[in-house]
């Protein structure tokens, strides 16, 4: 086991953007392009996740599980289109959740958030 590392810590919200514990990395609150189209927000969330993974020498290929949170789950096909392009066949296991985000911007703001687990073992 490699110990525990916390990164992208947000003191105001009292959470870590990611926690690396042993062979696993737990990624939290990956968002991007807030206020733009759902497709752009999915792309932004994946960019955010990818940036965090790069800090640990990893890529999206290391992601084994994601929780996709939507304001409107009828936008799942948009996410799937983006995932096909970004994951290129190395799809993680996935759960999709509908939620009313408590986020600045209200219904016109955050539409999509991605949380995940990545594996960095041999």
Describe what this molecule looks like in 3D.
With 122 residues, the chain is α+β, with helices and mostly antiparallel strands. The chain has two helices and six strands. A six-stranded mixed β-sheet has the order 1-2-3-6-4-5. The longest helix is centred in the middle third of the chain and has 18 residues. The model has no long low-confidence stretch (mean pLDDT 92).
Explain briefly what this protein structure is.
The chain is α+β, with helices and mostly antiparallel strands.
Number of strands: 6
* Rg, Cα atoms, Å: 14 Å
For the biggest β-sheet, the strand order reads 1-2-3-6-4-5
- Percent range for β-strand residues: 35-45%
- State mean pLDDT (0 to 100 scale): 92
Q: How helix-rich are the residues, as a percent range?
A: 10-25%
Distance between the termini: 12 Å
Number of helices: 2
Give the helix/strand layout.
Elements: E1 4-10, E2 15-21, E3 24-30, H1 38-55, E4 63-70, H2 76-87, E5 93-98, E6 112-119
Parallel strand pairs: 4-5
Antiparallel strand pairs: 1-2, 2-3, 3-6, 4-6
Helix pairs in contact: 1-2
